[in-house]
Design a protein that fits this description.
This protein is mainly alpha-helical. The protein is 76% helix and 0% strand. The chain has three helices and no strands. Helix 2 (25-48) runs antiparallel to helix 3 (52-69). The chain is elongated and about 55 Å long. The mean pLDDT is 86.
């Protein structure tokens, strides 16, 4: 809910140049997407080595990073 409110503020808040500056969004999305990918690979490695709890934590972290990406 807070993220949606923040995005709405960014889109609706008028700047002196005529709109919100959203140039930071593509790099932010790339970082979040790359983070999710690295966490997924690390989770795969963890489960193949038998580290179930680490795998679970990595999968939850990847889910969160992916949800933030969307």
């Amino acid at each position: 809910v807070a993220a949606l409110g923040f995005l709405a503020w960014l889109l609706l808040y008028p700047r002196a140049t005529g709109g919100a500056d959203l140039r930071f969004m593509p790099p932010l999305n790339a970082v979040l997407n790359a983070t999710a990918a690295v966490l997924l690979v690390a989770g795969r490695v963890a489960i193949s080595r038998g580290h179930r709890e680490l795998h679970r934590r990595l999968m939850v972290a990847a889910f969160v990073a992916s949800a933030l990406f969307l």
